UniProtKB/TrEMBL annotation:
<comment type="similarity">
    <text>Belongs to the glycosyltransferase GT106 family.</text>
</comment>
<keyword id="KW-0328">Glycosyltransferase</keyword>
<protein>
    <recommendedName>
        <fullName>O-fucosyltransferase family protein</fullName>
    </recommendedName>
</protein>
<keyword id="KW-0119">Carbohydrate metabolism</keyword>
<dbReference type="Pfam" id="PF10250">
    <property type="entry name" value="O-FucT"/>
</dbReference>
<dbReference type="GO" id="GO:0016757">
    <property type="term" value="F:glycosyltransferase activity"/>
</dbReference>
<dbReference type="InterPro" id="IPR019378">
    <property type="entry name" value="GDP-Fuc_O-FucTrfase"/>
</dbReference>
<dbReference type="GO" id="GO:0006004">
    <property type="term" value="P:fucose metabolic process"/>
</dbReference>
<dbReference type="InterPro" id="IPR024709">
    <property type="entry name" value="FucosylTrfase_pln"/>
</dbReference>
<keyword id="KW-0294">Fucose metabolism</keyword>
<keyword id="KW-0808">Transferase</keyword>
Length: 490
């Protein structure tokens, strides 16, 4: 059914004058060339122009907000001791650990040692803090709130034989409250003068006192800046992406596509690869999560997983969704992703529908990417930066990357950032219906996009992340008017 709908779009394929760019891009990605397709005559008129304008339009419901993190000027009291944490996971899970570590160190009046990045068997990235973030800016921006040092002083380490494993290590439950840290962790910190917390991901609850939330805002939105090599190449990629978006006045869509092999394997969803896919996924699951999916009593129901909206969208499904939502084949797309599973086969239909699609690999030369290529977190940081300055961000799967990015964009753009977060349960029903036609599918998808557009500013609610919803903890409202206007190019 999906491929029939894809075929229905062939009449909207790119014109011949675009063929050279299209084929060049496919060559860079090593993808098969599409069959020649006759393009329809160009359509003009007020209705067509209105449709193009609508897909970029932002609805400013809830007024306009601005960052309002109060800066402290008072000197810090004497420190209660040193805290060392290990930040595990990928780029944005590590970011969670860093932000929460700063918040806890400030709350307990402790000195924070620059967090250590734990080497993970899946991410396989040996990068240190200074490889990803601007360490000097980090320390300076926090100097009036939290003491941050590179390492514990020698007189402290002498007490533990200069061996970190001798330092008392707290095993803290996930989502522990700030009260727990004050009542349990602080006395031990004062007693030992040096403690470890490992692992530290998600060890602080979403809801906390204002003093803790303020520090979370400060570190995430102000203190954490990418290192100079990452920032420099990111600016170049953003500039090149805008140049390739000339037909939409520099506006482009950023799509976060989670269709890498490890994501497909972890989801336990079934696609169209048959026995070969099953064997590959079984091997990938055993390598990445040994025994997790094969233990006794474990029942996996791929059909139910899909109907619950938990399966990663394929490139074909993303393409159909965006075309159905009104984005035409002249829309420039930046694709943020790792190595796509079976890319030669799976990426072909998406490129047919959106020939102006770019990735960091197509925008940058091999020489420019060389310092980043074998470091997954540095590559993810490049994607994060280019997505931040897109006009529209499309998230196709949950995870830390889209959650942090949506919050960052809200913080930068007055509380508003055009984001398409599709209802994947609804998409599964639509895409799996063999009787639905293109016109009907498009009507449903336009309604889905309109629902995303209508949300406006979203306030943080209990048990939600301040990193995703910075209003009202990190931002203040400027006015109470409700209006709609086009957003300016990022």
């Amino acid at each position: 059914a999906l491929r029939r709908r894809h075929a229905a779009l062939h009449g909207l394929a790119p014109a011949r004058r675009r063929a050279a760019d299209h084929h060049a891009l496919r060559a860079r990605l090593r993808l098969p060339q599409p069959p020649a397709v006759r393009a329809p005559p160009p359509r003009h008129g007020r209705r067509q122009l209105h449709r193009r304008a609508t897909v970029w339009r932002q609805t400013y419901k809830g007024g306009v907000w601005r960052p309002c993190i109060h800066n402290l000027t008072n000197s810090l009291p004497e420190s209660n001791g040193y805290i060392y944490v290990e930040a595990n996971g990928g780029l944005n899970q590590q970011r969670t650990s860093i932000c929460n570590a700063v918040a806890i160190a400030g709350f307990l009046n402790a000195t924070l040692i620059i967090p250590n990045f734990h080497f993970h068997s899946i991410w396989k990235d040996p990068s240190k803090f200074r490889d990803i973030y601007d360490e000097e800016h980090f320390v300076k921006r926090l100097q009036n709130d939290v003491r941050v040092v590179n390492k514990a002083p020698d007189f402290i380490m002498e007490r533990f034989g200069h061996n970190l494993s001798n330092v008392f290590n707290f095993k803290i439950k996930a989502w522990s409250s700030s009260t727990y840290y004050k009542d349990v962790v602080l006395p031990k910190l004062v007693e030992e003068r040096f403690i470890r917390i490992s692992p530290f991901a998600n060890r602080l609850s979403f809801d906390a006192p204002p003093v803790v939330q303020r520090l979370r805002c400060l570190v995430n939105f102000e203190a954490l800046k990418f290192s100079n090599p990452i920032a420099t190449l990111s600016e170049t990629l953003i500039s090149r992406m805008r140049e390739r978006s000339a037909e939409s006045n520099g506006k482009y869509i950023a799509v976060h596509l989670r269709f890498e092999e490890d994501m497909v394997a972890f989801s336990c969803c079934v696609y169209d690869g048959g026995d070969e896919e099953k064997k590959e996924m079984d091997v990938a699951r055993e390598i990445g999560w040994r025994g997790k999916f094969t233990r006794r009593g474990k029942v996996i129901r791929p059909g139910i997983i899909r109907m619950n909206g938990k399966c990663p969208l394929t490139p074909l499904e993303v393409g159909l969704m965006l075309r159905g939502m009104g984005f035409n084949n002249k829309t420039a797309i930046y694709l943020a992703s790792g190595k796509i599973y079976k890319s030669e086969k799976t990426m072909a239909p998406l490129l047919e529908m959106f020939p102006l699609l770019q990735t960091k690999e197509t925008l940058a030369s091999d020489e420019e990417l060389a310092p980043f290529k074998n470091f997954s977190s540095r590559m993810a940081a490049l994607d994060y930066s280019v997505c931040t300055y897109s006009e529209v961000f499309v998230t196709t799967q949950g995870g830390n990357f889209p959650h942090f990015l949506m919050g960052h964009r809200r913080y930068l753009y007055g509380g508003h950032s055009k984001t398409i977060k599709p209802d994947k349960r609804r998409l599964a029903i639509l895409f799996d219906n063999p009787r639905i036609g293109w016109k009907s599918l498009k009507r449903h998808l336009l309604n889905m996009r309109a629902h995303s557009d209508a949300k406006g500013v979203e306030m943080k609610r209990p048990n939600e992340s301040i990193y995703t919803f910075p209003c009202p903890d990190c931002m203040c409202r400027l006015n109470k008017t409700t209006h709609s206007k086009p957003i300016h190019t990022r």
